[in-house]
């Protein structure tokens, strides 16, 4: 099962703020298949010749002790026949584990994954196979760990500039929403939600209007709001990070402030989080709450509403000790109060 180090890695991967042809998933498949086949079946020299003949770019740059051949073989293993979720680890599962560990060591892993024939289909298959275990909750630690490894590879694809648009055009984030819609508090489900949020967090980290436009056309905001209210601290942190990044985009701010219902939904959850933070103080969460309120105050209609409904603990000295070492958040809070008094 994922540990705290893995969870911290998810937060780290979506940035310091927390702590090609259309949508065809097989564009370039011939080239990638040649690469994978060369790694798996041919001699090293023949592999180099095939890459040159296919016009492939520079090979992956492995860290010490690794080889490109090994990575290509693992990618090929992702398309191996699927074993039962309760069965001993099969080739595909072992490949998921190894590649998820190596994903940060190979900067070109995302394009190779995307353009390798059948790989994205295999990763989506790993996700869909878990759906029957969501309701009623029957997700084992082993099954959760396996799908989280697949999600880690999807996060790699979502964060890479060469594959991000393809990832969106294929609507792959929508396959993660059933995971975000779960409510079970077990460890298996909590890490499933956290890892799924990490994929969305990797998307919004790019500050791309295309990403925000895509997310606004989906139900990501209500899903994040529910997690912000009832998830673990780590999940709340990633969820509010996503909402904050949406607010920072002009289109996102306008969308949330367009109707009373949307503003009320976001404002109510933020207010509830403030109430929770009074008893369970967390600088990491508080700074995102303050920044969300500050951004909302940039909208004239929202500013007028916040003058009446900003939680009292943000107006008095309730969090003075919590923020004593966080000058940036103290400044944001001061700016918020100034905005509302103008």
Characterise the protein shown here.
It contains 19 helices and no strands. With 342 residues, the chain is mostly helical. It is elongated, with a radius of gyration of 22 Å. Residues 1-5, 16-59 and 61-65 have low confidence and may be disordered.
Précis, in short:
This protein has 19 helices and no strands.
Alpha-carbon distance between the two ends = 51 Å
- In percent, how helical is the residue content? 55-70%
| Secondary structure tally: strands | 0
Shape, principal axes of CA atoms: elongated
What's the Cα radius of gyration? 22 Å
Based on the model shown, name its key terms.
disordered N terminus; mainly alpha; single chain; 342 residues
Secondary structure layout plus pairing:
Elements: H1 4-13, H2 29-41, H3 44-54, H4 68-77, H5 91-102, H6 109-115, H7 119-128, H8 141-159, H9 164-169, H10 177-180, H11 187-204, H12 209-216, H13 220-230, H14 233-248, H15 250-257, H16 260-279, H17 283-296, H18 300-309, H19 327-341
């Amino acid at each position: 099962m994922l540990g705290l180090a893995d969870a911290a890695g998810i937060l780290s991967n979506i940035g310091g703020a927390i702590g090609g042809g259309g949508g065809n998933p097989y564009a370039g498949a011939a080239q990638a298949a040649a690469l994978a086949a060369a790694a798996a079946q041919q001699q090293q020299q023949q592999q180099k010749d095939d890459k040159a003949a296919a016009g492939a770019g520079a090979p992956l740059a492995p860290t010490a002790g690794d080889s490109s051949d090994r990575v290509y073989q693992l990618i090929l293993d992702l398309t191996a026949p699927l074993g039962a979720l309760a069965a001993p680890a099969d080739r595909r599962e072992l490949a998921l584990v190894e590649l998820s560990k190596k994903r940060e060591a190979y900067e070109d892993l995302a394009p190779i994954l995307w353009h390798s024939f059948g790989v994205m289909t295999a990763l989506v298959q790993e996700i869909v196979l878990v759906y029957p275990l969501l309701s009623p909750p029957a997700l084992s630690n082993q099954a959760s760990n396996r799908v989280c490894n697949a999600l880690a590879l999807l996060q790699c694809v979502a964060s890479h500039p060469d594959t991000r648009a393809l990832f969106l055009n294929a609507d792959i984030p929508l396959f993660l929403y059933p995971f975000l819609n779960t409510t079970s508090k077990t460890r298996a489900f909590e890490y499933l939600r956290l890892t799924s949020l990490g994929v969305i967090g990797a998307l919004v980290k790019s500050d791309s209007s295309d990403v925000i436009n895509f997310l606004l056309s989906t139900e990501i905001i209500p899903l994040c709001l529910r997690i912000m209210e009832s998830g673990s601290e780590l999940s709340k942190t990633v969820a509010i990070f996503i909402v904050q990044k949406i607010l920072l985009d002009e289109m996102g701010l306008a969308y949330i402030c367009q109707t009373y219902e949307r503003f009320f939904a976001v404002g109510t959850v933020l207010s509830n989080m403030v109430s929770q933070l009074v008893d369970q103080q967390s600088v990491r969460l508080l700074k995102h709450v303050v920044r969300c309120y500050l951004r909302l105050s940039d909208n004239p209609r929202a500013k007028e509403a916040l003058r009446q409904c900003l939680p009292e603990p943000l107006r008095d000295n309730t969090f003075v000790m919590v923020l004593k070492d966080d000058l940036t958040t103290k400044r944001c809070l001061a700016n918020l109060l100034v905005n509302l008094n103008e």
